[in-house]
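can u pls check wat happens w/ adenosine-2'-5'-diphosphate
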Amino acid sequence: MEKFTLSNGVEIPAVGYGTYLTSEQDDGTVAAALAAGYRHFDTASFYGTEQALGDALKAAGVPREELFLTSKLWKDEMGYENALAAFERSLQKLGTDYLDLYLIHWPRTDDLTAEWRQLDRDTWRALEELYRAGRVRAIGVSNFLPHHLRNLMETAEIAPMVNQIEFHPGYPQTWNVEFCKAHGILPEAWSPLGRTRVLQDERLAGIAAKYGKTVAQLCVRFALQCGVVPLPKSSSPARMKANLDVFDFVISDEDMDRILTLPQFGWSGLHPDYPKADID
Ligand code: A2P
């Protein structure tokens, strides 16, 4: 598996397996993902999948150092003390004594009128402490826009290494990705397949066909070529494998441009600063 390198030199497998919406009980999905070749697993306290993931990894007996494990603290786990406690809970459920990457899941709580600037900074101090103590190999954020990142970085002693955002054709958040890269922050893509909303698109189908690939594979490859770590989800062993079979073709510059300049479609409607929008 190819790798990206974080700003602190830590290597991260280029494609990860997303566990949002997988079963809260070990149902064989993780074993199938391991068999397909995934070693990078993305979870979060909010997903309710940490325990099942931890149990399945333990049962599979893959050496811990061969795995790259990410988790995230939820909106109600923000603040300095809360974040430290949330981290311990995640470790316990995952059955490990360190994480490879720990993220703040969203920059704001559900109460969008609440003051978020100080809360983000306090939460970040806890992550910095965990990082300095060697409890986690890298720290970062998720769903942050440039103004959230700027606020954090004003007082941060350690800059975030990752920002995990919604990213797929039709919603590549180019301005945010470019901001992250300019600040040494590696972007990761949640919903790199637009949770299937973009898979029927005829324009993408036409491009994918040129390379003898499916639209899903085109989406995964598109993220990689944008310098973004895709975290596709699938419950099917065949599709898990297919989503990793993306290292034998290169999307041309022209096709990358065509994809990057498609008008917005397939957006989830989730925005960190506003209530969910009901758009396509
Ligand atoms: P399934 O679990 O049946 O494979 P995202 O990662 O963007 O959130 O998308 C996840 C969705 O995409 C799931 O519904 C998953 O369904 C589907 N999916 C994953 N891989 C593929 C693929 N290669 N082809 C078609 N659908 C896929």
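The mean pLDDT is 96.
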